[in-house]
Protein 1
Amino acid sequence: MHEPEQELIVDLRKLRCPMAFVQAKLAILSRQQGKPLVLLLSDRGTRTDVPRWLEKKQITFNILADHKAEMSVRITG
């Protein structure tokens, strides 16, 4: 039986832009191909920039939660 793949969670809530955005990009680009990744973001700029960058790079993602103080984004592609 095939086990579900564990996703990596990267908590960037304590970082502010530009460091949060830089660390998010590094995590996305260095992850193992096809391995799900969840980013936890709180900085307002990063919460806007990360989804925009993912769309530009045509990387598949979905927003799991988007609250006033934080956002979680799951990258699958």
Protein 2
Amino acid sequence: MRANIYHLKTERVAGVMMMAVLKQELDSKRSMELLHQIFGHMSMNTIQNLANKLDVGVKVKERGLAPCKCVACAASKAKRMTFARVPVRKSLPLEKLMVDVCSVSEPTVDGATLFLLVLDEATRFKWVYLMKAKWEATWHIKVLANLLCVRFPGQPCAACIPTKVEFIGGELTEFCGEHGIELTTTNSYSPQENGIMERANGIVLPRIRAMLTTTRLSNFLWGEALLHVVTTLNHLPT
């Protein structure tokens, strides 16, 4: 390397184009870093194999290469962090309810292909409702809200609902305003904001598949399996 520019020298040996890297008094880590950048950030294990084998068409004149840390590779492979690194869990029951709708390709005996899952953030208690259409979600939420207000009067209540067509209707907004329920929605294409429900779905759905596989029951019985799974989870410690 001269003037911060890498120089490659090629020479023809026995009809095969061989390539060598020009270095001047570089240590093993610096040599690995140089080769790693020249070969387009190739794996360092592959570079070591190239340095030890001569039958691959490329000859690297270097021995004893030591691995090094490439900051550019680490930065380019980094993934986006979750929305809340340390989320604050609500402490009061019914202080915040999380809502989500999932679809299943196989219809149940009654023809349901959707289910509404409601989760209490503080206690992790769950309610589930089978649905045939998305518009039924608003009706189930209203029924559940009335039930909770009658059974637990005076409890604060807020609902976090994903931004979907079946939830944005003015009927639900008007209902929440009349009953003093704070209604919040998540942003579109941001499942990390509703991560609690995403993890809940990741627990419920695999258990449904496992139950149907173990019992060798038909897939159209997933609704009954769902009700059993949610009831069992509500009686187990979180």
Protein 3
Amino acid sequence: MQYKLLEMVLGKAAWLRKQFGELQMPHPAYPTWPSPKQLAKLDRMRFPSYQGAQTPEALIAEFDEAFLQSYPQSVDWDTRYPKQKWIQSLLEKGAHFKNASDYSYYLQLRRDLLEKQHQSDEWRSGKYGIPITTDFQEYENGFIERKIWENRMLRKVSAENTNTPLTTIFFPSNYPDKYLPVIGKMTYIRRGEGSSLKTWGTTLTQEQRDDLLYRGKHPEDIEIVYIDGSYNLLSEPPKPYNREQWIQENAYITEMDGIPLTPGNYEDVLGQPMPERWKKWYETEHATRNQGIVSAPDTETLRAAARDAMKTEQTRFQQGLRELERFVNMSDAEFEAELQRRFTPQLPELPTIQRLENQLWSEAQSARMTPARFQAALKILEKYGSEEGMRKLRQADPKAAAEVKQILGGAATPGESSQPFMKSKPEDQRRPPRPNAP
């Protein structure tokens, strides 16, 4: 056992030495990153301009094989959005396929729509200027038109900067008519309240972000562009953030010399109106603080409620005493009758025989067969015979068939309605006499 354990330890040590030795081996140096002009040339070689026909058949023949190699899962998208029909709809909306990159861009939009169809909050939000709708097909049309416009803007910026291939565009969702083109190593900076800082474009290190925020120092190799909250370019960069100064200028003063400050007394105490942003903060803070807190009633209200409750209880007690006194003074017969009255359940009034007869007669009269229906039934029986005629009569007029069956002296068959109870009436109001038996 000891030898086996020692063998395992030695084997593990040998494996660790091997792994450590591989880490110490010299690795090849990373190649030098190409210049912007070299990258532009590589981009044109990778996506040469397409000069063929702008038709679904020609575009599929030119680009689809390479597209399927990169996106084999796209065959699943064809079920909902057939490729040829999809390209045709894009062309009708004004799309132009310049190269393989455009083909890949437009055909991948199908995947985006398949994902969004299950996100109703997203496609009904009105983002990117797409009209708000409850019909997903209408959203599809707006989405495609928006993406065609975005790709057109991207191509426009790329054409204006042919020597800089690292170009992309950020489209703000709440400002559909604006876009931020990132040309080369560029970063957009938007300063918010306090130390808030948002960026779009080339990624900044934490050190570079701190230099920008606290010292106003720009990175040497990255172009910095400042924008405001509406994505408009700023002519001058904002001042570096100073925490102490910001607190002094923006911190809300809650009291002065022990006096709580409110929008009503702020100007009287400090000699200047309360800033609007502090008024909003005050209203929000106090609304949140007081939410769900019920004010305690005053002393007089509590006393009045206690007096009313005591008066009600005293009245009930007096009524109970009077009821007890009445029971004590009852005779045995009166006591037994009272118990029966209290504990015997009250049954509803039973109907009289006359009411039952009237109800049955009204039901029978409503179902009674008229002479015209009777003559029509006889014609069917004469034409088709008794057995076949009764079958056809049951199909045409089940109630008439049931009454004819009873008139002829037979009982209603299963599934046929039987004649209700009929009250005896004068001779001239009775039903037609039975015909002679065949």
